[in-house]
């Protein structure tokens, strides 16, 4: 059987997001459900894998939020898309150093992939952690949701504006089972949604995270009800510029989009201005988007590195600072990655944001 056919299932024509959902999350052949994507042996490396300091900074940020919320006795921490569990492992280890916080926090992991859940359960050393498929299990607040490279892995829709109409990109299989793209006029419902966003008004080419917004809508409702916030760290931009940002990565190198389907990662860049507008529409306040460099430096990553370096040999120090440079350098992850915070709380004094 032609491998391309696997991902078209019952339909010959599929919108971009549904096709990508099949490629990434199909229970048997999907990329995230059948192999380990992370680390040197995988296809890409994330910030928690580059340096434990990234995860420690997130832990400190969560604890400072709890303090600014008035040290509540019920406090929920939810990681969105925990990957291989590296970030959560360091978080839980860091939380133990703060007994007062550690005693009251409840930790949840929101993961769609059963394959990754099994990896997480092997890696995470702590039993008082719950895996959830929806957010109904979180009853009392406040709640902090956070995700590192969570949103860019959720498939997007793509549209073109021509004259006064909006056309959606679809994929189809030709007679030789090759994937071809074509555009067809979008539904009235999609047209209305896209037209309602100011950020998208002047764009001719539009990427719209409909599936991602479905998840964020549930999260926004939970935050509005229980109070709290959501912190997202991701690869993306603030000013959209009519570009197709879909990209495929395999073994740490760029891959042609339709090659190695189900065996290569496919992501898109996050439109942070659109995220900002979405959260505002859904009743949350939003802090100014900052770069990963700004956030980590304001949270004291360099001071923490200095403390650690004093106890290290020269070669270990070199390794430490090379890793931090990768996180902070404007040419690497420092400016390419952005951090957004949306919240519903009386106190708006969040560390890392002005």
Please provide a written account of the structure.
By secondary structure, the chain is an alpha/beta fold. It has a domain at 41-151 and 210-338: Rossmann fold (3-Layer(aba) Sandwich), CATH 3.40.50. Helices cover 38% and strands 24% of the residues. The protein contains 15 helices and 17 strands. It has helices at 3-6, 16-25, 31-34, 47-50, 52-68, 86-95, 99-104, 114-123, 188-195, 210-226, 272-281, 292-298, 301-309, 314-328, 333-336; strands spanning 13-15, 75-80, 105-110, 129-132, 143-148, 157-162, 165-173, 179-185, 205-208, 228-237, 247-250, 253-255, 265-267, 270-271, 285-286, 290-291, 337-344. Strands 2, 3, 4, 5, 10, 14, 15, 16 and 17 form a nine-stranded mixed beta sheet that branches. Helix 5 packs across helix 6 and helix 13 (301-309) runs antiparallel to helix 14. It is globular, with a radius of gyration of 21 Å. The N and C termini lie far apart (55 Å). The mean pLDDT is 89.
What characteristics describe this protein?
single chain, alpha/beta, Rossmann fold, nine-stranded mixed sheet, 24% strand
The major pleated sheet works out as:
9 strands, mixed
Q: Given the helix and strand composition, which structural class is it?
A: alpha/beta
Residue runs with pLDDT of under 50 for 5 or more positions: none
How large is the radius of gyration? 21 Å
CATH class of the domain at 41-151 and 210-338 reads Alpha Beta
The CATH topology assignment of the domain at 41-151 and 210-338 is Rossmann fold
Q: Based on Cα principal axes, name the global outline.
A: globular
How many strand units?
17
Helix content: 25-40%
Q: In CATH terms, what is the architecture of the domain at 41-151 and 210-338?
A: 3-Layer(aba) Sandwich
Give the end-to-end Cα distance, rounded to a whole number of Å.
55 Å
Q: pLDDT average, as an integer?
A: 89
Number of helices: 15
The share of residues in extended strands comes to 15-25%
């Amino acid at each position: 059987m032609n491998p391309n056919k696997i991902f078209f299932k019952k339909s010959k024509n599929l919108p971009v997001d549904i096709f990508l959902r099949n490629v990434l999350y199909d229970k048997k052949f999907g990329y995230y459900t059948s192999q380990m994507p992370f680390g040197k042996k995988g296809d890409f490396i994330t910030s928690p894998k580059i340096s434990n300091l990234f995860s420690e900074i997130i832990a400190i940020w969560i604890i400072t939020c709890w303090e600014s919320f008035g040290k509540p006795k019920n406090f929920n921490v939810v990681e969105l898309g925990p990957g291989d569990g590296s970030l959560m492992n360091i978080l839980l280890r860091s939380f133990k150093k703060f007994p007062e916080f550690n005693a009251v926090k409840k930790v949840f992991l929101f993961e769609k992939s059963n394959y990754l859940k099994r990896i997480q359960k092997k890696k995470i050393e702590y039993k008082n952690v719950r895996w959830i498929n929806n957010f109904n299990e979180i009853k009392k607040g406040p709640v902090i949701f956070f995700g590192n490279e969570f949103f860019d892995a959720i498939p997007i829709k793509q549209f073109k504006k021509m004259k006064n109409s909006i056309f959606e990109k679809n994929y189809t299989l030709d007679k030789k089972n090759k994937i071809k793209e074509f555009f067809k006029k979008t539904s009235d419902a999609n047209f209305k949604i896209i037209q309602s966003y100011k950020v998208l008004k002047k764009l001719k080419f539009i990427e719209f995270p409909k599936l991602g917004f479905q998840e964020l809508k549930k999260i926004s409702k939970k935050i509005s009800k229980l109070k709290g916030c959501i912190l997202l760290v991701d690869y993306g931009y603030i000013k959209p510029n009519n570009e197709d940002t879909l990209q495929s990565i395999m073994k740490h190198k760029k891959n042609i989009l339709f090659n190695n389907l189900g065996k290569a990662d496919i992501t898109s860049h996050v439109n942070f201005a659109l995220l900002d507008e979405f959260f505002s529409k859904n009743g949350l306040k939003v802090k100014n988007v900052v770069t990963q460099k700004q956030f980590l430096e304001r949270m004291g990553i360099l001071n923490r590195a200095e403390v650690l370096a004093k106890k290290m040999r020269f070669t270990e120090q070199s390794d430490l600072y090379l890793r931090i440079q990768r996180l902070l350098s404007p040419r690497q992850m420092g400016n390419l990655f952005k951090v957004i915070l949306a919240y519903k709380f009386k106190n708006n004094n969040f560390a890392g944001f002005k």
